[in-house]
Amino acid sequence: MSIPFQKYHGTGNDFLIIHADEHVPDRGALAERECDRTVGVGADGILFLAPEEKFNPPRVVMTLFQPDGATAPMCGNGARCAAEWTMDRTGADSVMIDTQAGTLRADRDGENVVIEMTPLTFVPDEVPVMADEPVLKAEIEGLEVSVVNTGVPHAVSFVDNVDNVDLEAIAPPVRHADAFPDGTNVTVASPDGSGGFRQRTYERGVEGETDSCGTGAVAVAVVARRLGLTDADPVDVHPPGGHLRVSFNDRGRPTLAGPVEHEFDGEVAVEPPVEP
Ligand SMILES: N[C@@H](CCC[C@H](N)C(=O)O)C(=O)O
Which residues bind substrate (predicted)? Predict the structure, then answer.
């Protein structure tokens, strides 16, 4: 049998979206197969969404399965896609998104979807990273990184020019370093010449570079501020797939803004339910 999906992307970070009510016997196996860009539809993950449309604003429970078949507690661009999907269904301009990392509010703002991110932390036990104090400009596996959790862990390295970095070579040793009990995403950033930053991220779970990473963009902005590289608000961050804007609201929480596109719809095969 087959079930429907909708394909969305946020600045090139792309997801199949499947209603959580659909019969999917093994979500991890479906993500491994269908995220594969040669044998499957091809995506950076599958978002299983359980909308609760009777609330005002509507709510949606988001679960991200990544191409390695495992879940991740939070995804900035995925949350923006989940918000757009829910807005498309309901006509609402605001959505509450329940993630494993906490509840986020999303609002439409012209062409952009803006989300208030979960609280960020540099506290080692909360990242998690094995250290006695926040990891700032420390060398891990030969790379100078600062470590923050913006919903998921990121090791952020500021370099002169992100184009000159061989990310597929330098990121995996850091991503798998013993210092990170749950692994980490690895993000490099360089000044864009206009007060913002260019960004490239090697994602845990994708095990490769993606065109954009929302939690990574927020990590670039908050680490840049913590290291005194900028005091701008907002901070413009440019992953390869587009333009994201990180701001800081009066609750001290970062917000992430950028465009979202509905690409196409389709169907994927799943095992039918076993008859009793
Ligand atoms: N692309 C995402 C991050 C998804 C989770 C990440 N790969 C992890 O395992 O921590 C984003 O936009 O934030």
Answer: 13, 66, 76-77, 185, 203-204, 214-215
